[in-house]
Amino acid sequence: MTAQRATVEDVARLAHVSAKTVSRVFSQRELVAPETVERVLAAAKRLRFRPNALARGLRRGGRTRTMGLIIGELGNPFYYKVASGIERVLREEGYGLVLATTDDTEEGEEQVAETLLGQRIDALLLIPVSRDQAYLEGERQLGTAVVCVDRPARNLIADSVVLANRAGVEAATSQLISHGHRRIAYVCNPAAVYSQEERLAGRRVALAAAGIEDGARWELLVDDPAERPERLVGQLLDAAEPPTAIIAGNNRMTVGALRALRARGDDATALIGFDDFDTADLMGVTVVSYDPVELGRQAARLALERIEDPTGFSRQIELPTWLVSRGTGERSPVTG
Amino acid sequence: MTAQRATVEDVARLAHVSAKTVSRVFSQRELVAPETVERVLAAAKRLRFRPNALARGLRRGGRTRTMGLIIGELGNPFYYKVASGIERVLREEGYGLVLATTDDTEEGEEQVAETLLGQRIDALLLIPVSRDQAYLEGERQLGTAVVCVDRPARNLIADSVVLANRAGVEAATSQLISHGHRRIAYVCNPAAVYSQEERLAGRRVALAAAGIEDGARWELLVDDPAERPERLVGQLLDAAEPPTAIIAGNNRMTVGALRALRARGDDATALIGFDDFDTADLMGVTVVSYDPVELGRQAARLALERIEDPTGFSRQIELPTWLVSRGTGERSPVTG
DNA sequence: AGAGCTTTTGACAAGGCTGTCTTGGCTTGA
DNA sequence: TCAAGCCAAGACAGCCTTGTCAAAAGCTCT
Predict the structure, then answer these.
(1) Is the CB of residue A54 inside 7 Å of nucleic acid strand C?
(2) Are residues A119 and A195 in the same domain?
(3) Looking at the predicted structure, is the pLDDT value of residue B103 above 90?
(4) pTM of this prediction?
């Protein structure tokens, strides 16, 4: 009873042409006489024919006009904004997007990569979590473009798009110093990723330039997905000699910091967050901002270029970050 | 020079078995003798063999263990949370997810649906934008499961998962009434969608129950993607007889309302938003809440069930909504 | 009219995998 | 000891499309 899907053969029969001609109408129309095209299209429409992307991809030697994207999870604004930028470029270019998440676990990454590669995607875009992407080397040699977003690949030659992490945090730190702060904390979780290492480096440069030596005392670097941001910031605030300013390493930490400060009725401690968020302007939160959607766009473009030219040197693009002053980052310390 | 991808044939040769046996090792392992399995796996590993999902899908008559998801855009928290719920279930079940966005345009919907269906997905999940999904009827008959999220399909028999929109807004409205409000506005954009119609209906029920007749005066229903939420709420506030309470029809409108109120130094007008957001607790915003991730999960489950049993009655699931009181919705009107 | 060219169309096979059917070897039971 | 039965493994074809090669049809020009 279930009707069968129409194939080129069915359309060909109805239009009195060969299957190959039907195929041409759907991929190299310019090679077919106008009235034939019309006849074929009419038949196709009548039979509700739709080319089978599976068979096409198979025949075409694997080029599927599809890219795979691996991100930590869709619940995180950073990830989905990047995804959004990628998706937009791909749509413009007629590419499909297969999405997979890893819950930010290392095993997850390799496992979903495996699945995606089985789909014969033309390119793999990923925000690396695993500390080693060597497992992709074979695939890269087979012609799959690999582009890393936000963090460069380790032990793998691949294109990447990253942020000016150092510069951003250096600017934030300098601003706090210029407002008179000396006890400047930096909190983040996770910490063992490239972007955080870079941000910390930026912070240290600024501290060193101001002659602040004991900066490490107020670094709180955690790698525990179960740890709540609010509690971490609370630890800092409740310490014997609390910081007078806090830099939060990502947007979750920033919101956690706001909660912790609120809970303590603290409106004196300065705060700068890395990464802007929806209501930051309403709450007057100073942040290091950047364009996550652009991050995705650039990554997609790199992938497209790499598909065109699988050889050639790998490239790394760095996108700017900038400070958006809204209040919390311009507070001066109460005690000198 | 580019190395070729290994196929079952290559693995078979190396393991001294037939291609069919390799195939069995990768899909019906229990039919193969243990030591043969081992030999094949070793060979596969050496050659970096990975089954070609394209060929497999083709051969298996289209079952690709992949679902397609069509949403408006990834930049909207509602959409990506739903996507997140779906993705999670699919990952557990070993299904892949192909994502496509429409920018909330009608043409976009049918167009990307077409592309996805070309990929021979087993199910199509969508948040309908188009006012008519009849174009999917043929596909449904061919055995593709179709599940609508947040809004039921029109002119198409399909499973769907929706929210208790009426009940949520009815509760919000009643609460405002019980606090003494009579001039209760409702703002939303877009307005010509099922969910908003339902919410409005809920509002009207509550108003009618309280004997408020002229409620329609404070309804601001707009369908213009370019219109800024803040400006719309501003219009309401600046009118001759402004409302004493506002219900915002979605999260963007809620944030827009907060901006408009802030800009006017207004902290008297009550506000209840539909849909919770990240910093709503910090800002004391009362909202009608629900679980968008669960919305996605249920949708994915419906799709899985439909794939199992393509016949059978279509089902509609309604998920609860509830009021979260945080302050802005508990303000009493300044003037009676 | 016929050579030479271009345009349009078609026959055939292949791409990688798996469903169907078959074979060969071994076990079981009378 | 032999038929019946079972298990592991293989040969072959086909899923649907398209690249390759070739033929047919139409045209120009001498």
Answers:
(1) no
(2) no
(3) no
(4) 0.90
